[in-house]
Design goal:
With 172 residues, the protein is of the alpha+beta class. The protein has a single domain, classed as NADH Oxidase, CATH 3.40.109.10. Helices cover 44% and strands 15% of the residues. It contains 8 helices and 4 strands; from the N terminus they run ααβααβααβαβα. It has a 4-stranded antiparallel sheet with strand order 1-2-4-3, sandwiched between helices. The longest helix has 22 residues. The chain is globular, with a radius of gyration of 17 Å. It starts with a helix and ends in a 6-residue tail after the last helix.
C-alpha cells in the first residue's frame, strides 16, 4: 500500500471480528511503531501488548466504558517513558517522551491499516487506572490504548477542515 493511500484510507474502527491477529503481523506492527522518530534517538516509549480478556475488559472500563476495547483480539498500550527521556533532556524530557510515543502511535496505526487490520486511537481513559491495571511505573505515562483486529465495520471518511483554515504562511 502506498503511504498516502494508507494515510487517506485509515479509519478509526470500533467493531472487530472475532478472529486473532497473527503473531508475525503483530511483531511487524510493533517494529513499525519502534521505527518512529524520537528525540535524541532515546526511544522514550514502551509498548504493552494485552490479549488477556479480563485485562482488556478492565482497560475498557478505565477508558470510560468503551467496550469495543475489550472486544478487540489484542490491545496495545503505548507508554511515554519520561524517565528515559528526562535523563538527558531534564524538564523537556516529558514533552519529548510524549512526542516519541505519539509518533509511534501513528506508525502503528498506518502499519496496521497497510496490513489489512483495524485500529482505533483511544486517548480518553483514566490514566491512573490504566497504570494500576498494567503495573506502569512512576515517570511513565500511558498515552494511547490501541485495540487491534480485523474490522467488522466500514465507516466513511469524516469531513476535514480545508487547508485554508489550518495552514498559515510565514506567520499566524
Amino acid at each position: 500500500m502506498e503511504c498516502l493511500e494508507a494515510i487517506k484510507g485509515r479509519r478509526s474502527i470500533r467493531k472487530f471480528k472475532d478472529s486473532p491477529v497473527k503473531k508475525e503481523i503483530l511483531e511487524e506492527l510493533l517494529e513499525a511503531a519502534q521505527m518512529a522518530p524520537s528525540a535524541g534517538n532515546l526511544q522514550a516509549r514502551d509498548f504493552i501488548v494485552v490479549s488477556n480478556k479480563i485485562t482488556k475488559q478492565k482497560l475498557a472500563q478505565a477508558a470510560l466504558d468503551q467496550s469495543f476495547i475489550g472486544n478487540a483480539p489484542v490491545v496495545i498500550v503505548i507508554v511515554a517513558n519520561i524517565d528515559r527521556s528526562s535523563r538527558i533532556y531534564r524538564s523537556r524530557g516529558e514533552l519529548y517522551a510524549i512526542q516519541d510515543a505519539t509518533a509511534a502511535v501513528m506508525n502503528l496505526l498506518l502499519a496496521a491499516h497497510s496490513r489489512g487490520l483495524a485500529t482505533c486511537w483511544v486517548g480518553a481513559f483514566d490514566e491512573y487506572a490504566v497504570c494500576d491495571i498494567l503495573g506502569i511505573p512512576q515517570r511513565a505515562t500511558p498515552i494511547a490504548i490501541i485495540p487491534v483486529g480485523h474490522s467488522d465495520d466500514k465507516p466513511v471518511a469524516p469531513a476535514r477542515m480545508g487547508l485554508e483554515k489550518v495552514v498559515h504562511r510565514e506567520t499566524w
